[in-house]
Amino acid sequence: MGEVQFDDLDRFVAYAEKHFQLPLLAGCFVSERCDPKIPSRAVGLSLLLGEVTHIPSLHQLDQETQLPQWQRWVGYPDRISHDAFGYASDRMDPEQLRRAGVFINKKLKRGKAFEESKEHGLLVVSLDANEQFCSDHRCCEQCLSREVVCKDPQGNEVRKTQYYHKQIYAQLSGPRLSVILDVEPMRPGEEECAAALRLLRRMRKKYGPRFFDVVVVDAWYTNGPFLKTVVEELGWPVVAVLKQERRDIYQEALALTVGEPTQVVERGEGSHQRRVEIWDVRELRFSDTYTDPVRVVRVRERWTERTQQGKEWKTVQKEQTWIWVVAGDLDGYDGAAIRDFGHLRWKIENNAFAELTQQWHLTHVAHHQPVGVWVLLWIKIIAFTLFHAFAICHGKLFRLGKVTLQELRKRIYRSLLCGWPIRCFSG
Question: Can you tell me whether residue 80 is helix, strand or coil?
Answer without folding.
Answer: coil
